[in-house]
Amino acid sequence: MSVSVLDGGWSLRPRFPLAGVFGVGARDEIWWKRAVSAVVALAVPDFALLALGRLDLAVYTSAGAMCALYAHALPYRARARMTAWIGLVMTGTVAVAITAAGLTGSAVLLVAVGALLAAGHKVFVEALRAGAPGNVVLTFIGAACAFVPHRLGEVPGHVALTALGAVFAWAVVMAPALRRPHGPERRAVARALEAAAAVDGPAGRQRAAAAVNAAWQAVLAARPSGLERLVVQAEEALVRTPDADRLRAWARALRETGTVPDVGLSGEQHEELVGLAVERTAARPAKVLPGLVPVVLRTLLATLLAGWISLLLGVGHPYWALVTAAAVCQANAVLSWKRGLQRALGNFAGLAVFTLLLPVSRTGAVVLVLLILICQFVTESLITRNYWLGTVFVTPMALLMTEFAAAEPGFVLVTDRWLDTCVGVATGLLACLLIVDRRAAHRVGLSLARLERARESARAAAPVPAATALASALTELREAVEGADGEWWRRGLPEERIVRAERDGHRELARLQSLP
User: Fold this and answer.
1) How far apart are alpha carbons 246 and 514 in whole angstroms?
2) Is the bond preceding 156 in cis, omega lying within 30 degrees of 0?
3) Between 20 and 30 A from 498 (CA), which of 70, 79, 364, 515?
4) Position 266 confidence tier, pLDDT thresholds 50, 70, 90
5) Is the distance from CB of 235 to CB of 269 less than 8 angstroms?
6) CA-to-CA distance for 52 and 22, rounded, in angstroms?
7) Greatest alpha-carbon span in the chain
8) Which residue windows are transmembrane per the record (predicted)?
9) What is the pTM of this model?
10) Is the alpha carbon torsion for 428, 433, 435, 440 positive or negative?
11) What is the dihedral of CA 140, 146, 149, 154, to 10 degrees?
12) Which residues, other chains included, contact 16 with Cβ-Cβ below 8 Å and sequence gap of 6+?
């Protein structure tokens, strides 16, 4: 059923597609950096504790080690700040969780603590723009620690172990800067040059604009390195036919370890470089809180319901349901539906993998640690291709990590995880149906207004900055429309106005490209 009302009114559109949910994409080009960093950050403290005969403490050092999964696409100055913030929040999460566990044995209250942490993690990662793996790792660690019995006297030592693991993870993530101090921004500019070389029609220009914007963000977050000139050259492809061979040659040079290609600029290009740099440096980040309120409320409701329903069903690990619900809650109902299906398939397949690995893992502590490290590496190699593929190995890794504290019957672990997956997916989807983002259509209106202003100002501005602003506005509008269209119950969108605005924007881009 699909009922739409143009320019006002409410629209009931319960569309939950299957297309693309389980498709397998290409690997992220830096997946191996996250994989190696995570394995090193986990392995060193785990084997140190193993040598000391205290592998039961590995859950706390592993919590800190998980900080090594974040920020790999950022320049090193920004990466240092981001990873430090992640480490502080991770350490604080463990402190809150184990303090709560030491103060009360009530599973009902501990679920509430886990749910509040999950909602707080959602706000934190969105406000900080932390990127993948988002809030789920933080929530998993917090919820798991809350259900490990603690005495209050143990809290300082366990928190210190988490902090130590986070500091080591920070060092691991920053170590490549010793060899290639400008590596991340060079990769970002190389991607922009490659996208510019492949410009072909409106869709190609929008992809190039997105890559150029990402390159500017990377370059301006780092120390000056001469890369700015190459970003300007990539930007030229938005309005002029590019010299694809030359752009690709520059991109290859950036991906190597040599010097940055020496690129000259015309007087006009130099003025554009100065103006664009000033504009981007002065620009304030967009406010994320207004659009975040619905998804935070969904996360809170879904995690509370998931944990409490799991308790009612007699499941011994209710935090697994809580974490699944937190993972399912996305920006809109359609994205949550897709994530729910991916999570369910990945978890169920992962339970089969865990069943095969469990007997092997119990042959010795060294084998247990090695299996966890292998699962971590494989997860990072697959999760960017499709979330469900990564979850196939996240599931056994998480279950094997419970073996650090105490071994439980395999049948109990598998049954609990199966039930918790069903409960978590169901409550996550239910929360998305109950709590609707009623301002999604309003954000579409704001994006339309911005696009119309960009199109009007394009006639008076220099071609390159005008094309960049226009392509960026087109991308913002498309993202706002897709976000609003993913809500199952929303205020009707001005469909005809959207189509007309996008058409006129693409025509204006074509006009700019034809200018000498």
Assistant:
1) 21
2) no
3) 515
4) low
5) no
6) 43
7) 74
8) 58-76, 158-178, 288-313, 349-374, 386-406, 418-436
9) 0.83
10) positive
11) 100
12) 333, 334, 337, 488
